Amino acid sequence: MSELLALDNVSAGYGESVVLEGISLALNEGDSLALLGRNGVGKTSLLVTLMGLTRLHGGSIRWRGQDIARVPTYKRAHAGLGWVPQERMMYPSLTVEEHLTVVARPGEWNLQKIYEIFPRLKERRANMGNQLSGGEQQMLAIARALMINPSLLLLDEPMEGLAPIIVQELMRVIARLVSHGGMSVIVVEQHARLALSLTQKAIVLDRGRIVHQSDSASLLQDKEKLDRLVAVAA
Ligand SMILES: Nc1ncnc2c1ncn2[C@@H]1O[C@H](COP(=O)(O)OP(=O)(O)OP(=O)(O)O)[C@@H](O)[C@H]1O
Q1: Signal sequence span per UniProt (predicted)?
Q2: Is the Cβ–Cβ distance between 140 and 96 less than 8 Å?
Q3: Separation in Å, CA 113 to CA 32, 80, 125, 129, 153
Q4: How many domains is the chain partitioned into structurally?
């Protein structure tokens, strides 16, 4: 599989403050990665850095072999980076269907396919963005990112605050996206075991640095190490 994303010794942050340091990682097409760590260690900042929304203090980020340090966020989205932010960002003035159609780009994901994997969104297609439950908003946030037909999907704590039954439903969808193989996925999760069970590779951050890299299955089996690395909410 060919290389999709490569970070080499990346330092990044907000203004003068540096919150990520010495980050190096590579992702091939079809790879799935769990990005783990305690609260405030820089997981969201790493996703945001991939989208070009932090200040890059050093290092390089290559996307399909091209340096994208100066590429603006919207162009990164067009190039195939699909971001599902933690805040979900629904618009009260748009219906569910409008949220999906305004961002649509050609490719295998279209309304019909989205409604197949998220039947609830089909039922709610005429509802406004602010008339949805938390679970439905999360489904819509993922669906919207899929409509740009990304090569890499960035999921920031997709299960956060959702009822167990919705978590199960989302787990099934994410597992299907990962096993499909055509798209790469990075999942940030407080629930480390959920994320590890969905992915092939794992990275653990601590205070802005990578402190562990392995395949997900071996970290999942090493309970002691996992507890030590991520402590809570595993
Ligand atoms: N917009 C911002 N401006 C300044 N500092 C920020 C900003 N966002 C995050 N930080 C800081 O960057 C560090 C990493 O935060 P980040 O949100 O990336 O961690 P996280 O691992 O995603 O945490 P959580 O699990 O709580 O979401 C923290 O010290 C945080 O205070």
Answers
A1: none
A2: yes
A3: 21, 18, 14, 20, 17
A4: 1
Predicted-assembly ipTM surpassing the 0.90 threshold? yes
Cβ atoms of residues 109 and 147 within 8 Å: yes
pTM confidence score: 0.94
In one letter, which amino acid is 18? V
Structural domain of 186: 3-230
The CATH code of the domain that includes 8 is: 3.40.50.300
The continuous run of DSSP H or E covering 103 comes out as none
Closest residue by CA, ligand 1 atom 23 = 40
Please give the structure tokens belonging to residue 155: 């999921």
Which residues, judged by CB distance below 6 Å to any ligand atom, belong to the binding site of ligand 1?
Answer: 14, 19, 37, 39-45
Give residues with Cβ within 8 angstroms of 80, minimum separation 6.
63, 148, 149, 150, 151, 152
Is the pLDDT at 233 greater than 60? The verdict is no
For residues 229 and 218, the answer to whether their CB atoms sit within 8 Å is: no
